[in-house]
Amino acid sequence: MALNALKNLDEHILAFFDISPSPKTRRIMRLLSIGAMITAALAVSYWGYQLYAGNREKNAQKELAACMELYEKAAGAGEMATLWPSVEMACKLGHERYSGSSLAPYFLSYQADALIKQNKMDEAITIMNEMVHALSPRSPLYHVYATKHALMQMDATDNAVRAAGLLALEKLAADTNNEQRDEALYYLGLYHWHNNDASQAKEAWQTLMSLPGSPEYNSPWISLVTERLKLLA
User: Fold this and answer.
1) Which domain holds residue 174?
2) Residue 19 pLDDT more than 90?
3) Residue 60 lies in a domain
4) What is the pTM of this model?
């Protein structure tokens, strides 16, 4: 139907200007008309998607804000809070509704925290793993959550999961592009400290102390290891 409409349009234009083109010219004109129609359709689709995506992001933001509000309410209710299952479910549903949103990973983060509060550590680790993999490595918060995930794994009951967490933390501590490297080094040293490996703890914390930084920024983790390093001297 669309091709017939284009053909009729071509004929009307040619008749109006009293033009009698060759078959080759007619084919070229028809191709140009098809190209124009495709371009217009793509433009409409693009702007339509942009409008849809914009509305989706706004709705996702509202949903995430509601989850955060519920989370804060549960956190303020003390250790006997009964709202954590509601937080878990709200975040789970929010993620399902807005899985294509840029905010989708953050629903998972709050869901994982709600699971931790319910002592469902294995489930929390699974959700946090999904969260980290969904978050772009270019995000300024990527290494914050990657470190948190590694530490959660190190608290698991399964030996293999704990080993994977330690390996992940070691990689984060060795990554010179990691803007949260000081945090990873602190916890790596703390792990060795608690496991009576003074040599490895000292190595991690000395690396932390030697990290370059701007005069305006003083790593908060340095003050936590200064006295302990004196004991390891």
Assistant:
1) 136-233
2) no
3) no
4) 0.74
